[in-house]
Write a structure and sequence with these properties.
By secondary structure, the chain is α/β, with parallel strands linked by helices. The protein has 14 helices and twelve strands. It folds into two domains: 46-205, Nitrogenase molybdenum iron protein domain (Rossmann fold, 3-Layer(aba) Sandwich), CATH 3.40.50.1980; 220-350, Nitrogenase molybdenum iron protein domain (Rossmann fold). Helices cover 44% and strands 14% of the residues. Strands 10-9-8-11-12 form a five-stranded mixed beta sheet. Strands 3-6-7 form a three-stranded parallel beta sheet, covered by helices on one side. Helix 3 crosses helix 4 (108-114). The two termini are 28 Å apart.
């Protein structure tokens, strides 16, 4: 099974190759110059050939004239996508979990391989600070997974600083995308176009597809089993939309996340009286309680919680590890591999002996 260690091993391998190359090139000044002139030109030509590029985003077409050198990200995970592509943004939002450099531990290897650590800033929860963003002197601003819905006024203001890339207008299936529901492949492909790293994106997508396929091949009995990701907020249980990235993860390992209906929004709150009606027949529910540990007791105290099929068959997954919860939310290339390693054993326990009817 793919792991973050394997990605790091790749980085170490590249570093070793680079060291050997430098040692070989140091044999003579003339040799070094010849090597540089032979290799630098194709790289420059390849970079130039990717630009200008026009991207079709949810906020309209955006043209990136040349390879970005100073990228600023505004959302919670875009910087981790860029690290995986080998791009080091100059500024990123602070981590909601308090991680250094705004980056989860699962993405540190990618960050270090990409370049210098970024500056961090408070992105604001209801509006963007255009003056602060401008102070980083960006030549590209990325908000494909923003911390709040960007208004047209904000978009126009930020576009006066640098091109702004929001989520793709349509997904690879041709359908219009929904906020916070873009697939990793579609988001990564868009960011790769914006940064001239499409070959890297293709390799990453192939790796992740292979990792998910390994899980599905190991658990064919999961096909048709129903699951959902939820939690507890303001006295009510809730579940996310099927398009949410966390539910995308469950779907990618072979589970059916479409059984809960009734919302086109990012999430659906469920009253205590409707708990069994909405969630009663699910084979499993992944409950996010790591950052709100009291939620487990509150959920279990709901009168109808004991009658849920997931409760009666030990199908509830209690996500109590804060790092795993953060990786599950991040849905970046490195966090996906981390989540597979941490989440699949929990699902195996919850779904043991179950098969779809």
């Amino acid at each position: 099974m793919h792991t973050t260690t394997q990605r790091r091993a790749g980085v170490i391998g590249l570093a070793a190759v680079a060291a050997l190359t430098l040692a070989a090139c140091s044999s003579s000044a003339s040799e070094d110059e010849a090597t540089e002139s032979a290799s630098a030109e194709p790289t420059a030509v390849a970079a130039d050939a990717a630009f200008p590029v026009t991207l079709d985003t949810a906020m309209g077409e955006v043209t990136v004239e040349s390879e970005p050198q100073r990228v600023v990200t505004l959302g919670s995970h875009e910087h981790e996508y860029l690290y995986a592509l080998g791009v080091a943004p100059v500024a990123v939002p602070v981590s909601w979990q308090g991680y250094e450099n705004g980056t989860g531990p699962w993405a540190e290897a990618d960050m270090n391989a990409a370049g210098d650590a970024p500056e961090t800033f408070e992105p604001g929860t209801t509006t963007y600070d255009a003056e602060l963003i401008a102070s980083f002197e960006p030549d590209l601003i990325i908000a494909t997974y923003p911390n709040h819905t960007m208004t047209q006024e904000e978009y126009d203001l930020l576009s006066g600083i640098a091109p702004v890339v929001t989520r793709p207008a349509t997904g690879s299936d041709g359908a219009e995308t929904v906020e916070w529901g873009v697939t990793l492949a579609d988001e990564l492909s868009l960011l790769a176009q914006a940064t001239g790293t499409e070959d890297e994106a293709a390799s990453i997508i192939e790796e992740l597809d292979g990792a998910f396929a390994e899980v599905r091949d190991a658990h064919p009995e999961w096909e048709g089993l129903t699951s959902q990701v939820g939690g507890f907020y303001e006295g009510q249980a809730f579940v996310y939309a099927a398009s949410d990235t966390r539910n995308q993860f469950l779907a990618n390992v072979g589970l059916d996340v479409t059984a809960v209906e009734g919302t086109d929004a990012a999430w659906l709150q469920i009253s205590a009286e409707q708990l069994d009606t909405t969630l009663g027949d699910l084979d499993s529910v992944v409950w996010q309680v790591a950052t709100t540990p009291e939620a487990k007791d509150e959920l279990e105290a709901l009168p109808l919680f004991a009658s849920l099929n997931a409760t009666e068959t030990n199908g509830n997954v209690w996500l109590t590890d804060t790092v795993l919860e953060g990786a599950f939310f991040a849905n970046s290339p490195s966090s996906i591999l981390y989540t597979i390693d941490g989440m699949v054993p929990l699902l195996e326990t919850a779904l043991e002996g179950k098969t779809a009817e």
